[in-house]
């Protein structure tokens, strides 16, 4: 692990235990086994460190979403892959997400603006996929695009509150459940019958496992 990541990992543990204002740069430096020079080489301030913690997980989902758009043709397939990568972020970056939502009120305005910009980019990808799905008649045309996107974001984002790595369901199983719920709501009846998308639904997972 390089120094930057070591500082982030240490700060995550400290912020979870003591809160953002309960931790000093000196504590982070001491616990991570570095110097103040080492800290300030990577971060201008504790505020920037909190911003970078958020940037790790929003950059991950945004990169995955853009890759999906570029490498898949069907809106249904795009949505399935976007949901899967979105859900997985709560496993890969669970400490980052918990700390961010707990401490984000302390961010300075310039960092809040940068975060909003990336979140808007992610929303824009979802808007484009929903619109494309409606235009290609894979998604139900009566669904309002904005409410649909905000519903998906709200439902999946709330996972950070209850997801546990040692819980009953793995993150893969949880992702499959979200895919099933969202696609059952989004897809037209005709699209649901399309053999190319059969594997996205839980009933077909169960059927396959019994064979």
Automatic annotation (TrEMBL):
Coiled coil: none
Alphabetized UniProt keyword annotations: DNA-binding, Repressor
Keyword Cytoplasm included in the entry's annotation: no
DNA-binding region (UniProt annotation): 24-43
A Pfam family that the UniProt record links to this protein: TetR_C_24
SUPFAM superfamilies xref list: Homeodomain-like (SSF46689), Tetracyclin repressor-like, C-terminal domain (SSF48498)
Protein name: TetR/AcrR family transcriptional regulator
UniProt cross-references to InterPro entries, sorted A to Z: Homeodomain-like_sf (IPR009057), HTH-type_Tx_Regulator (IPR050624), HTH_TetR (IPR001647), KstR2_TetR_C (IPR041490), Tet_transcr_reg_TetR-rel_C_sf (IPR036271)
Domain HTH tetR-type, first and last residues per copy: 1-61
GO MF annotation terms: DNA binding
């Amino acid at each position: 692990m390089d120094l930057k990541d070591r500082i982030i990992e240490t700060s995550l543990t400290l912020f979870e235990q003591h809160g953002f204002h309960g931790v000093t740069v000196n504590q982070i430096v001491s616990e991570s086994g570095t110097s103040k020079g080492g800290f300030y080489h990577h971060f201008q301030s504790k505020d920037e460190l909190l911003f970078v913690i958020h940037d790790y997980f929003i950059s991950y989902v945004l990169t995955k979403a853009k890759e999906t758009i570029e490498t898949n043709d069907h809106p249904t397939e795009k949505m399935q892959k976007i949901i899967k990568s979105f859900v997985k972020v709560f496993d890969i970056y669970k400490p980052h997400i918990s700390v961010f939502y707990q401490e984000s009120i302390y961010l300075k305005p310039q960092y809040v603006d940068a975060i909003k910009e990336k979140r808007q980019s992610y929303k824009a990808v979802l808007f484009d996929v929903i619109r494309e799905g409606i235009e290609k008649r894979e998604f139900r045309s009566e669904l309002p695009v904005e409410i649909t996107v905000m519903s998906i974001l709200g439902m999946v984002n709330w996972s950070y509150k209850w997801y546990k790595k040692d819980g009953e369901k793995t993150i893969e199983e949880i992702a499959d459940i979200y895919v099933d719920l969202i696609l059952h709501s989004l897809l037209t009846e005709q699209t649901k019958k399309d053999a190319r998308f059969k594997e996205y639904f839980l009933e077909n997972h169960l059927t396959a496992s019994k064979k």
